[in-house]
C-alpha cells in the first residue's frame, strides 16, 4: 500500500467512527423519547 | 444547533487546510498529515477526561445528579476520541515504523486508559438502576483519570519511540503546520462540545424517564 492509502484510510476511519457514534446516540435518543411518550400517556391515563 | 453547525463548519475548514494548505513533510510525505486528527483527538480527549474527573469529584462532594450526567457524557465522548486516537495512530505507524503496534510506553498507557474507561461504561450499564451506580462510577472515573498525566509524561519518563510534539524544546513545527494544527484543535474542541451537549440531552431525558417510572409506580 502506498502512503496515500494510509492517509485516506485514517480520515475514512475517523469519519466512519464519527458516523457510528452519532448513529448510536440517535438510536438511543429515539428509544428514550418513545419510552418517555409512552410513560407520559400512561400517567395521564392513571390520573384520569 | 448553532454549536453543531459551528463545529461542522470548523471541521470542514480544518479539513480544507489539512488537504490543501498544510505542506507535506519532507521525509514522511502525505502520511504525516494524519498527525492533525491524531494529535487534535488526543488533546481533546484529555479535556473530556479532565471534565469527567472534575464532575466526578463534584458528584462525590455534592451528590447532585447534574454532576453525574456531566461526568458520564464527557467520559463517553472522550472515550470515542480515545478510540479515534488508537485507530489513527496505527494507520500512521505502519508506513513510518513498519509496524501497526508496538508496546511503547505512550501507546501502552493510552490503551490502558481506553480499557479503564471501557470498564467504566460497562460497569455503569451493569449497575443501571442501582443506588450505588453513580458513586461507584465517580470513583472509577477518578482512578482512571490518574493515567492521563502518565500518558502525557510517559515520553519523557520512559524512552519510547513515540515522538513528543507538544511541549518539546527541540524541533517544532513550521508556521503553516502550526496554523493548521491550531485550527484543527479548535474544530475538535467544538466538535467535542457539540457531541457532549447532544449526549447530555440524551442523559437528561433518560433521567426524566427514570423519574416518571417512579412516579407511575407511586400512582398505580
Write the layout of secondary structure elements.
The complex is a heterodimer of chains A (48) and B (220).
Chain A lengths: L2 H45 L1
Chain B lengths: L1 H20 L12 H29 L2 H33 L7 H22 L6 H13 L1 H11 L17 H45 L1
Helix pairs in contact in B: 1-7, 2-3, 2-5, 2-7, 3-4, 3-5, 3-7, 4-5, 4-6
- Proportion in helices of chain B: over 70%
Shape type of chain A: rod-shaped
- SSE order of chain A: H
Largest beta sheet of chain B, briefly? none
Q: Low-confidence spans of chain B: pLDDT under 50, at least 5 residues?
A: none
Spatial separation of the terminal alpha carbons of chain A: 68 Å
Instruction: Give the termini separation of chain B.
Output: 39 Å
Task: Tally the beta strands of chain A.
Answer: 0
Question: What descriptors fit this protein?
Answer:
heterodimer, A: 48 residues, mainly alpha, 1 helix, B: 220 residues
Provide a descriptive summary of the structure in words:
The complex is a heterodimer of chains A (48) and B (220). Chain A is rod-shaped. The mean pLDDT of chain A is 88. Chain A has one helix at 3-47. Chain A starts with a helix and ends with a helix. Chain A is mostly helical and 48 residues long. Chain B is an all-alpha fold and 220 residues long. Chain B has one domain (8-13, 32-219). Chain B is 79% helix and 0% strand. Chain B is built from seven helices and no strands. In chain B, helix 2 runs parallel beside helix 7 (175-219) and helix 4 packs antiparallel against helix 6. The longest helix of chain B is centred in the C-terminal third of the chain and has 45 residues, at 175-219. Chain B is globular. The model of chain B has no long low-confidence stretch (mean pLDDT 89).
